[in-house]
Amino acid sequence: MAKLSDPITILKGIGPSRAKQFENLNIFTLQDLICHFPRGYEDRTKLLTISQLEVDTPACFKAMVMGTPRTSHIRKGLDITKVQVADHTARLSLTFFNNKYAAESLRYGQEYIFYGAVSGDFIGYNMTNPIFELPESAPVTTRRILPIYPLTAGLSNAVLMKAVQQALAICDVPEEILPEPVRQEYGILPAQRAYYAIHQPQSMAEAELAKKRLIFEEFFVFSAGLSLMRASRNGKTTMAYKNLDLKPFLAALPFAPTGAQQRAMEEIIRDFSKGVPMNRLLQGDVGSGKTIVAAAAAYCAVNNHKQAAMMVPTEILAEQHYQSLSRFLSPLGISVGLLTGSMKEKDKKALRSDLAEGRLQLVIGTHALLSTSTEFLDLGLVIADEQHRFGVGQRAKLAAKGTDPHLLVMSATPIPRTLALIMYGDLDISILNELPPGRQSVDTFLVNESYRPRINAFIRKQVAEGHQCFVVCPAVEENEDLGIKAASVWAETLQKTVFPDLRVQLLHGQMKGLEKEAAMADFARGGADILVATTVIEVGVDVPNATLMVIEDADRFGLSQLHQLRGRVGRGSAKSFCILTSQNRNPETLQRIKAFCKTTDGFRIAEEDLKLRGPGDFFGQRQSGLPAFRVADLSMDLQTLKQAQEASAQWIDRFGTTDTPEAHALRKRIGELFRRAEGTIN
Ligand code: ADP
Ligand code: MG
Q1: What is the pTM of this model?
Q2: How far does the centroid of ligand 2 lie from the alpha carbon of residue 292, in Å?
Q3: Tell me, what's the pLDDT at 128?
């Protein structure tokens, strides 16, 4: 018996080069293989007679070969084999292209099970390239439900099928983690049956049941993980803050807070006064002013003799926040520091000792904050900006540097309530649903290729007026998906043929972290006129001088993503514009984008997007911060999710502390799921 953790190379037919191909699908071990689920099935169970076959509808039938297959060599690289078959109802001609196997193995007078689709014309019926097996052989490609797997270059469905089959034969499936009573109550298949049935279902109904089980299981693990996290915090106490007067802070601000900011600050202050660690998500559209709410929170923490740390995903954001927070807080006598990976060792060291000895009250930093050498004297508040870029584990890691500190996570991705409850089920939520006054809306247009000269002229005009432009492309490089604009190629075209006299800068996700930051920082300083980029510019960088964003092939993006992108312009005093190009002619798609052009309400866009595309695409693949569900789909399977949440909550209540094998296995799986989530971030 093999172990689930064994490498797939122990399987017959999988050597090092095959293994490389499997790696492209993230399959390394037998467990990965067994958890590589089909994306669909082909039902080949029906056995028809030849006369029952319908044109263009593939099906199985049993027929006898009525002659010796004849192969004609048409030209180099093209051999055609023809043979007649018949059953008691009709005859049929079969044609095979370049199929030596068929030519050599089909025997006159022998019966086979064929699978294929007939095509008909006035000359008669014909079938091209059917699959066939001997009736007495075990069903492999006919007379069964065939799983269809997600594939990668060089790996065929047949190879995957065979590998999975082998794996299932030589090792146990992943352990049962769902307690028996839960399975009973929700009509859930046992693990053993589900893992076999998902790969080798006897019927489509069984495949459905298996899928339901696996979806339920994923949601159960996920919800149980969140419940455990919540439970581990329950009963924790912390010092209740006494000094909660924000007046000096507000008086020093150059503007009055919006009603929404006011509300959020009050909610945070209420949390601070409770003597229980805060866990709050601050959600607000781009530009809604989350930073000063965070500053207010930091102000309170410091006034109560605690330190505060703010973690952001990129160096440039860290710098921007450092500057704006210092501006608000330094005049109030609060010491603010910056910690990023690219700082000089000497400076990092000095800053770290200031933190450890309590000389520094607020630090803004990147992942460098998480390093073990970063210590605090008394960390009371952890703030994570652009939360979707961090995994649950990372925020926990920073929090562990204090003793149950308050936690404030901020997200600019408006998330529909249903989804927020799932992703942040362990958090309370404050929403900034109001933009600061005087903010101009960004005029948004959808155009087609015939507008290209006008777009170019418009870019030129903006630059002539001293402004900068973003051009966003859906891909980095040209790929098989022809016709999509690729940032690298498009940047070159713009620079060489359209704007040879302007400065065009390129930015994409495949560039190294520091290169990316340098490109972005350069653009922010005005070092380029046009920034051609992929969606990497999404995250909250402020370039107030940018007044135009052109989004190429806008139909390739989710609406929420478009909204995030559009938020990059309109941050200064000058009128700003967003031009969406699309060559898509699908009326629904165009309708959707046109609706987007008319609205600026991020939450409405998000709801719409969730309905249309589901959460996988919703955040842009890279960056949901959600575990990578393998089977479950948050938009489709909400019903199952509700059940699993209910069941897992009960499970935590009733069995949470017991030490059954299932409970043990479940804990292990929770760990794996959340670790995998970490791996998918950035
Ligand atoms: P985000 O929510 O996207 O992080 P920021 O906190 O960066 O937004 O705020 C965007 C801009 O709006 C900043 O320049 C900030 O100073 C300004 N701002 C924030 N709150 C207000 C307000 N109440 N009145 C006017 N301007 C504000
Ligand atoms: Mg921000």
Answers
A1: 0.66
A2: 9
A3: 94
